[in-house]
Amino acid sequence: MNIDGLLPWENRETDSKTSVIQDHVRSVRKSGGQPILNHPHGSSAVSAHDILPVQDFHMMKVYNANTKRNNLFKRRYLDSSLTSESIWDDLLTEGMRVYGVGSDDAHTFITIGPNKSNAGLGWVMARADSLDSDSITEAMKQGDFYASNGVCLKRYKRSGKKLFG
Questions:
Q1: Considering the chain, what is the average pLDDT of its residues?
Q2: Residue pair 50/74 in contact by the 8 Å Cβ criterion
């Protein structure tokens, strides 16, 4: 999030998903951006075990409204421990500070329908000083946001480990 262009990818041989994620985190940080792990439950699914050793990592996509990226458990592809929600829960249980983001991941903008990946089906609500990318990124880095697919809160407050709506 909040980078100016495409980041170079080192195509190196490794079986370590942790190393690949760590390399991406370093590259994004070096470019002044905020790394977000997208599609953790996708075809190259990662587990909490893969993510826990990664340093300077604090955001992952937990909700994706794209109809081809169903967040729900699919028996033929994954076991239930590799859903986004399960991975996130495992990371939090292990004490990792990682925020959950959401997006519509829109790919279809002309035809609207329940089987289309349309805009406006998932987003992040951030409490930022202004609507520029730096302010929104800073609010998200501080955890001053929530992911939604429809709920809009008038206010929310964090206190210690509790969130109040």
A1: 82
A2: no
Assigned domain for 9 exists: no
Cα dihedral 97→61→21→132 (10° resolution): -80
Q: What are the tokens at 92?
A: 């939090």
Other beta carbons within 10 Å of 62? 23
Per the DSSP assignment, residues forming a β-bridge with 123 are: 148
pLDDT at 68: 63
Task: Count how many domains the chain has.
Answer: 1
Mean pLDDT of 52-81: 71
Does residue 104 fall inside a structural domain?
yes
Instruction: Report yes or no on whether pTM surpasses 0.90.
Output: no
Q: How far apart are CA 130 and CA 55, in angstroms?
A: 29
Residue range(s) defining the domain that contains residue 86: 17-149
pLDDT exceeds 50 at position 76: no
Phi, psi dihedral angles at 50 (to 5 degrees) = -70, -35
Assigned domain for 12 exists: no
Question: Does the residue 10 lie in any domain?
Answer: no
